[in-house]
Amino acid sequence: MIKKLIGPATSLAAPVTLVAAWWILSAGSTSPYFLPLSDIVDGFQQTWTTERMEDDLLPTVRALGVGFAVAVVTGIATGVALGLSARARRDLRPITEFLRSMPVVALVPIGLVVLGPGQRMEAALVAFAATWPILVSTSDGVRAADRVMIDTARVYGVSARRRLLRVTIPAAMPQVMAGVRIAVAAAVGTVIVANMLASSSGLGYLVISAQQSFDIQETWSGLLMIGLVGSVLTCTVVLAERVLLGWHRQYRSLERTAP
After folding, report:
1. Residue closest to 63 by CA, chosen among 15, 122, 104
2. Structural domain containing residue 189
3. Tens digit of pLDDT for each residue in 19-57?
4. Is-contact 198 111, C-beta < 8 A?
5. Is residue 179 part of a domain?
6. How does DSSP assign 47-109, residue by residue?
7. Model's pTM, two decimal places?
8. At what angle do helices 119-143 and 86-100 cross, to 10 degrees?
9. Which residues form a coiled coil (predicted)?
């Protein structure tokens, strides 16, 4: 029982220490830009009323959720296809490298022209930005799948579809989930930038409008909420990873203890 509690306690030690240090070091601050953490917490409670959550938080969360879900489905499906086909990788690599290296900020004007302002455009940009880490990781994971296991399944008469679903994709899942975790940061950053540049609501709009009106307390409130949204999404992905890769952790532990 004690061993099970050591892991969570260790994980909480760093953020708790950071918050405590911030609280203590900022307690006597008189700078209008570096507010005491106690004032920021009070401002956070005042800012995030029910109306503000409906106007700014929920639209951002909806666009983020839809775009990220599309990115996961698209990235995994396309990554599996590229991982299985050397010809597809060769033919599509110039296109994927060109699109992957394009900054999302540069696509905001095109998104406004094609889709117009609103959550549809924001979700599309999130999907574009978050797809590439998942696609690349999935493709690499499929290519790195154990050929011995795949050939053994083929020898035993397992169909190509079952080999893909039962052998190749499970073997690639550790790298797939690593790509999904990387995509979280890309998705959150993209939706905030889209809010700032092309929206009249959302977390990014709140932060930029508060900054332009020199409302430092509200700016900090928006930044804290962005961090909370990103943390919740990251924790959700981590929990999904633990569920999907429980077998992998058991396999690794048996591998380490094997003579």
Report:
1. 122
2. 55-257
3. 888 888 878 777 777 888 888 888 888 888 778 888 888
4. yes
5. yes
6. H--HHHIIIIIHHHHHHHHHHHHHHHHHHHHHHHHHHH-HHHHHHHHHHHHHHHTS-GGGGHH
7. 0.84
8. 140
9. none
CA pair distance 200, 117, nearest whole angstrom: 9
CATH of the domain at 217: 1.10.3720.10
pLDDT of 105-151, one tens digit each?
888 888 888 888 888 999 999 999 999 999 999 999 998 887 888 88
Residue 27 lies in a domain: no
State how far the Cα of 122 lies from the Cα of 90, in Å rounded to an integer.
31
- Number of folded domains in the chain? 1
- 49 belongs to a structural domain: no
Whose tokens are 């590229």? That residue is: 82
Residue 191 maps to a domain: yes
